[in-house]
Amino acid sequence: MKLYDRDAAQNLRRLLGRFTLAPVAYLPTPLDDCPHLSETLGGPRILIKRDDMTGLALGGNKARQFTYSLGPAIDQNCDYLIHGSDSQSNQSSQTAAAAARLGMKSITVVPRDHRSYPVSGNLLLNHLMAEQVIYTMPAAVEVEKKKVIKRLKSEGHRPYETSQDGAILRAVAYVDGVIELCEQLEERGVTPKAIYTSSMTYTIVGLVVGLRALNACFSAVGFNYSVGNDQEMKERLAPLADECARTIGLDLTFTPDDFDVTCQFAKPDFGEPSGTSLKALRLVARTEGIILDPVYTSKAMDGLIHHIQENRFTKQDVVIFLHTGGIPALFAYGDEIFG
Ligand SMILES: Cc1ncc(COP(=O)(O)O)c(C=O)c1O
Question: Which of the chain's ends, N or C, has fewer CB atoms near its CB within 10 Å?
Fold first, then answer.
């Protein structure tokens, strides 16, 4: 079976060549064989695609996504990057780092929540890199962010909000990431059955569009990190995949059934590890010296381990795990990890 269609990859590269790229990530990222983890699980060969090593202030999928989604900020000569989310948001610290790398300034809006004190993890990184960190009540983050943007515009600045602005380009970045991965697999002579990832939106959309565009012989499996309904998630993602394809100039359409995604391993809640996700985090650390994070990747690894235990793979199979980063938050979770 052919791994992917090389002509399609060439055409896709041509289409992607039209986008302005922001040079904020080290790419390609490594693809690590994990024999000790595979052996311990008695399962398939596992390779970890190291997007935790994209380099931008401790790395992660946001750096790859930003290579495309910050292109318009460069084109529009923006001078501020703005973000606001929970206090351990990876995107906030990656926003602050990207701004610094691109010669811009950044403002982060942070809710006072149970992980904002003591200052640690991503929040600490924000204090190091952002021009300003504005604390507010959790329910007021969006309002505060809008106020900041309005104020900056009234002062003649050109702010760019990294959650909303150019959002679909974050998926386009992972379409490009699929070409990178397929070329690495081809070079190694490896044909996987699937690529597993933590994603609520853009990473999985990009993978699904990229794999279809390349006619690749393996599929993507996404684990949401937020509790919810699987069918609703699929229905939300299909139009985004259409938008992603359209943005690139690909004549492809998608349905909810194109998405193999679940919220099953997000419990007990967003940002709260489960007993089995912490076990997965420790297992990967001890067998491979690879550090997962407590919010995203350990839950996706928990899902992969469950699938291996359900005998979805033979020992001859190969599965890719996409490490999407998030490591700084680990330092705000000492109690759970040692408790
Ligand atoms: C470490 C990490 N993994 C995965 C994700 C999921 O990203 P997305 O839903 O954009 O695919 C995020 C972003 O929220 C993240 O910070």
Answer: N
